[in-house]
Structures are given as structure tokens and as C-alpha cells.
Specification:
The chain contains no helices and 13 strands. The N and C termini lie far apart (74 Å). β9 and β10 form a beta hairpin. By secondary structure, the protein is mostly beta strands. The strands form three sheets. It has a six-stranded mixed sheet, with no helix packed on it.
Length: 171
Amino acid sequence: DYTKAGIFVQRQDSYNDLDMIFAFASSNNANSVAISDEKMRIDSSGRLLIGTTTQGTAAADDLTVSTSGDTGITIRSGTSNAGSLMFADGTSGSASYRAGIDYYHSSDHMAFTTNGGSERMRIDSSGRVLINGTTAQTNVEISNNVINSYLQTFSSGSQYSGPNILSYSAG
């Protein structure tokens, strides 16, 4: 097998509108590589496109991954460490981690954080959902420091449906 690789610069609409294209050709008789063998592109706006030449929707177009089948992105971290997807509105302090989704391998739980890294919801290794808490006795547990709290479920017609749970603090 022969593998050929190439990096191309392709001009789009204007003089300064350049895309960088990474291409690979692999076959028994690969003598050259062409733009049609494209695997990845960095466009003139700095967007990274893998497996496609079309960016995603405007609200999420900085990284687009595409295949013709099941597609995904893997975050691989150490067995006693965490893998994270963070949301930021700044570059320092809590602005650099305003919210996030973290998976902790050591305890096999997923945490959802908001407001500068404060954990708000957790799915533990048993599949239990904890809201505002880190330990649970039941499948869904909501911890709240408010005097009165309640959980209600609604059907699509805004009529109450299912359990209505009301709890009051002893304090």
C-alpha cells in the first residue's frame, strides 16, 4: 500500500479568503493526492471541518464532524481523572468555566455544573439522578435548602398528571 498526503491552500471568494485542506490518498497505486481526497479543512474563519466541507449551524460551527454513519467525538482521560466539556464567557477565574459537563472515571459519575463550576446535577454509577446533592437513597433525589419546595409533573395540556410532591423543611 502507498499513502500520499498533501496540504493544499484553496482560495474561496476573495483574495484573503483561503482554506487550508488536508488530504490523504491510500490505494495500491496511489501516485498522487488531490483536493478530492480531502479529510479535514480549516477554513478562512478558523473553523475546523472534519469529514465535510460544510460548517454546522451558525450557533455551533467552530467544529463540525461528519460521516455517512454514526458519528461522535471521544474525550479520553485517565482512569482516575475526569473528562470535561466546558462553557466559558471569559479567559480567567470562574469566567473560564461558567458551566460544564464532567465525567469522573474514579467514581463513574457524570456531573453538570453551572454558575462558575457549582455542581447542580449528577448521574451516579447506579443511574440515579441527584439534583443539588451528591448522595442519594432513591432513583431521583432533589436536595434543596429552601423552606418550601415541590415537584410537579404536567401533561401536554397543562393539566396535572402523575405525582405532585410537596415537602416542607422542619426548620
